Q: What sequence folds into this?
């Protein structure tokens, strides 16, 4: 991914490479998911190596399986470690909860909140986001 940041922030653009492994298991109506991700964010000044782990649960809010027109619940927590050669590693933690609706077999809508603790090993910054998503399955 090439991310244009100069147009919106006082930061340089970046080239990002991502590698990830996903595993999901549904022993009953609740699905558990694990994602391990590494990434390299290359800018003109440095390269940031990122390591992430996300644990997710989701479940239908009516019945034992998700059918078209029905709501569902998703919650996850994600830990992030960012390492740069010239500075101290940064640790972040994110907590997300969302309610979603399966509109069609290939279209979902989700809304919820994400609470972040950024750089909590040095100078913690807390941020709350309101999320809305439309997910199209191709």
A:
């Amino acid at each position: 991914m090439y991310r244009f940041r100069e147009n919106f922030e006082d930061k340089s653009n970046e080239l990002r490479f991502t590698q990830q492994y996903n595993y999901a298991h549904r022993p009953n109506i609740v699905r558990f998911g694990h994602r391990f991700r590494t990434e390299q964010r290359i800018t003109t000044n440095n390269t940031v190596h990122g390591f992430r782990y996300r644990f997710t649960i989701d479940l239908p809010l009516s019945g034992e399986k998700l059918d078209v027109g029905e709501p569902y619940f998703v919650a996850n927590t994600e830990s992030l470690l960012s390492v740069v050669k010239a500075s101290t590693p940064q640790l972040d933690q994110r907590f997300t909860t969302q309610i979603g609706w399966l509109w069609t077999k290939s279209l979902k809508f989700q809304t919820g909140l994400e609470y972040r603790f950024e750089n909590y090993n040095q100078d913690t910054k807390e941020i709350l986001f309101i999320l809305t998503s439309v997910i199209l399955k191709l």
